[in-house]
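sanity check both lines:
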Amino acid sequence: MPESGLKGIYLQVADLGELTEDDRIAFYIPQEDSHLSGYVGETSLTESGNKVITGMLLDKGFEYRFVFTVGRLQTFGTLHTSKDRYQLEARDGIARLVSAREINRDLDFSKPDYIVTKKSAVEVVTSNRVSPELVVSE
């Protein structure tokens, strides 16, 4: 049985980095007590060497998208179901699956999600003196 965390549920996952196009995939969503299957539609590599995996999960006759980014140390992604959207973070075969509802539960969207601070002007001092290292002699 998965262990509950402060936000999300911890579970074991296979190495998603091994997935290739057209591979079949299955997810257990503990929050919904459901098993969903689907397929990998596309994989690509980013310039930084991360693998991006996109595909679809079948839930109640409809397809729902998932996207995972697999890095050297961590995997991060989002998957959708008919009931919710989830974020997944995984390291060393252990993942945390958090529902968007859980993430947003204590947020007040009527308030700004930023803070405006006043910064004093920065004074830049320059010198007309040329440093000896910058002088080029012929």
